[in-house]
Amino acid sequence: MVAVNGMYLAYLFQVLIALSGIYAYVTGQIGEAFTATFMFALSIVPYAVAARESIRFPWFVYFLISLALWFHVAGYVQGFYVDLYPYYDKVAHLVSGITIALLGFLGVVYLDRHWRMRLTPLFIAGFTIIFGLALGAVWEMYEFLVDMFFWGSLAGPMQNSLADTMLDMIFVLVGSLIVAMVALSYFRSHRVDEVGDSLEELGT
C-alpha cells in the first residue's frame, strides 16, 4: 500500500511537469517549454530502464526523480528561481544532488552484482559522491550554454554569478554526501549484494 501511494506522488509530479510545459508553450515561453518537455522525457527513463532490465526501483526513486525535475521546471516556468532566490535554487540543487547520487548508488550496485566486481562499500560510497558531482557539473554546463546561446530564460540568466554556480555545486555535493553516508550506514548491517537482490525481487 505504501509503495502504491508513493507511486501516485511520482505520477503527480510528472503531471505537474507536463502541465508546466503546456503553460510555458501557451504563454510564449518556448525555451521553458522545451526544457519541460525534456524533463518530462527524463522522468520516463527509469520506467523504461526498469522494464528493459526486468526490475522495479523502490517508489521513492521514481518520486525523487519526478520531484527534482519538477523543481527545475517550475523554477523557470513559474519564476520561482527569481521570486524565491536564492533559497528555491539551493533546495532544488540539494534535492537534485540526492536524486542523482541515489541513481548512481543503485546503478553501481546493480553493475557490481551482474559483473561480479566485488566492490567494497567504501568504493561504492565514493563513486556515489563522484557520480552526483559529475552530473551536477553537466547540469551547470547546460545552464551556461543556455545563457550563452539563448541569453537565459524569460526569468533571467540561468547562472547569475560564479559564486551562485559554486553554491549550486556545493548543495549537490551535500546531497551526494547524504546518500553516501546513508549507504555506508546501511552496509554496516547488510551485504552489498542484498541491494541488488532486492531490486530483482521487486521486479518478480
Please describe what this structure looks like.
This protein is mainly α and about 200 residues long. It has eight helices and no strands. The chain has one domain.
Order of helices and strands: HHHHHHHH
Spatial separation of the terminal alpha carbons: 17 Å
Number of helices: 8
> Structural class, from helix and strand content?
mainly alpha
Q: Note the main sheet.
A: none
What helical percentage do the residues reach? Answer: over 70%
Record the SSE blueprint.
Elements: H1 2-26, H2 30-53, H3 59-77, H4 80-83, H5 87-115, H6 121-150, H7 162-187, H8 192-202
Helix pairs in contact: 1-2, 1-3, 2-3, 3-5, 5-6, 5-7, 5-8, 6-7
Task: Describe this structure in a few short sentences.
With 204 residues, the chain is mainly alpha-helical. It has eight helices and no strands. The mean pLDDT is 86.
Structure keywords:
single chain, mainly alpha, 204 residues
